[in-house]
Amino acid sequence: MKTSAERGREVRRKLLDAAADLIPERGWTAVSTRILAERAGVAPGLVHYHFPSLQALLNEAALDVIGRVVAETGPLLERAETLDDGLEGMLGALDAFTGSDPVSVLFTETYLAAARDEDLRRELTALVTRFRRELAGWLRARGQEAPEETASVLAAALDGMMLHRPLNPELTSAAVAPVLRRLLTRPGGDDRRAGG
Amino acid sequence: MKTSAERGREVRRKLLDAAADLIPERGWTAVSTRILAERAGVAPGLVHYHFPSLQALLNEAALDVIGRVVAETGPLLERAETLDDGLEGMLGALDAFTGSDPVSVLFTETYLAAARDEDLRRELTALVTRFRRELAGWLRARGQEAPEETASVLAAALDGMMLHRPLNPELTSAAVAPVLRRLLTRPGGDDRRAGG
DNA sequence: GATCGACTTGGTCAATCGTCCAAGTAATAG
DNA sequence: CTATTACTTGGACGATTGACCAAGTCGATC
């Protein structure tokens, strides 16, 4: 038999999970309390018991998912020895995101919602900054020229690819890998393959 | 004295302009017929007289704006002699888009809406494909290696920058220009400045 | 067994939603 | 002057919205 508190946490979690499904499915501003409760399999009134507002629920759900993806990237990078290996690894991870899958769309929906919600923007900026810093540190440790600027461009390019993929069948990892590899260079080095 | 037809076209135009304002402002799914009519300064019933549905109005408004931006890019590229000059020009044009301005947000909102509307997706794909082809043709004419793939990555990177700019103050044209310039190379050439 | 507090239920509230339409205006064609 | 046509008005329709709440359930504590 579960305690009330345990069941409460479970309901909270179910609502957050349902939100993570529904935001990509219907769009941020089209997720309603009732649809949310129905998807989570709980009563409608629970939304405003566990969360101060619908917006607060959506913010927490989105930041949860994005935070999890960011947290997974660090270890993935550390496993790679060279710049080329790291790029390979990131593109491999990107293959899981077709641009139409829920996580890709959730990312973009959250970027947009952040333009209209100051709290969300502040927390999202913190997550994106952490990702960029990790990437820049990894690049610098491997001799990459202008690591901060390269990390900024690389992070933007990866999200841009998620945005374009559903509209551009040519945008496969295999096709873009040779192009993105040109971004990776070492100071003074003339070779375009910096990872060797 | 204006004819009925002239006034009708004017109302249609006012509705499309109001939609182009409101989609970025409130989000695609949060634009309502009444808000739209109020912003356009016309009666609510006119929305469904001039358009079959609210969605059709939003689609047309968004594709109008995006089509206009795409149409402006061709001439801008043609003016540039070298690869470096062209990149410079594109980054200059990108400076008009802070990522928070209405046009930037409208782009992203439309990408997302296209994931949920087949008609919109088809027409948006056509526009993006045209932009990519123009860019690829321009790159090829100036000796760029793998022009199609480079154009795909460049187009995605530019949209990605629009997405990241509000969250990343370091993402200025000046900071990213040297990094993006690495993307431009000629076959067999070892120099990273291909435009000279 | 009584009391407490956390959690849940099912519903109300005013406001807004997309769509549709009957009636009205006014410029044009016969 | 009389249709005819295009455009406009203001409101009606049922459905849905975010927020809120009184009443009820139930395990934990004394």
Describe this structure in words.
Two copies of one chain form a homodimer. By secondary structure, chain A is mainly alpha-helical. The first copy, chain A, has one domain: Orthogonal Bundle (Tetracycline Repressor, domain 2). In chain A, 69% of the residues lie in helices and 0% in strands. The first copy, chain A, contains nine helices and no strands. Chain A has helices at 4-26, 33-40, 47-50, 54-78, 83-94, 102-114, 118-141, 147-164, 173-181. In chain A, helix 1 (4-26) crosses helix 4 and helix 1 packs across helix 6. The first copy, chain A, is elongated. Chain A starts with a helix and ends in a 15-residue tail after the last helix. Chains A and B meet through helix 6, helix 7, helix 8 and helix 9 of A and helix 6, helix 7, helix 8 and helix 9 of B. Chain A binds a DNA duplex (30 and 30 nucleotides) through residues 1-5, 7-8, 11, 32-34, 42-50, 53-54.
How is the main sheet of chain A built? Answer: none
From the helix content, strand content and strand pairing of chain A, which structural class follows? mainly alpha
Number of domains of chain A: 1
| Portion in strands of chain A | under 5%
Tell me the span between the first and last alpha carbons of chain A: 59 Å
Question: How much is the average pLDDT of chain A?
Answer: 91
- The number of distinct helices of chain A, counting runs of at least 4 residues, comes to 9
Q: Which class of chain A in CATH terms?
A: Mainly Alpha
Work out the radius of gyration of chain A: 20 Å
Give the H and E element order of chain A.
HHHHHHHHH
CATH topology of chain A: Tetracycline Repressor, domain 2
Q: Considering DSSP H and I runs of 4 or more, what fraction of the residues of chain A is helical?
A: 55-70%
The CATH superfamily of chain A bears the name Tetracycline Repressor, domain 2
InterPro entries (chains A, B): Homeodomain-like_sf, HTH-type_TetR-like_transc_reg, HTH_TetR, Tet_transcr_reg_TetR-rel_C_sf, TetR_C_31
Protein name (chains A, B): AcrR family transcriptional regulator
DNA-binding region (chains A, B): 32-51
Domain HTH tetR-type (chains A, B): 9-69
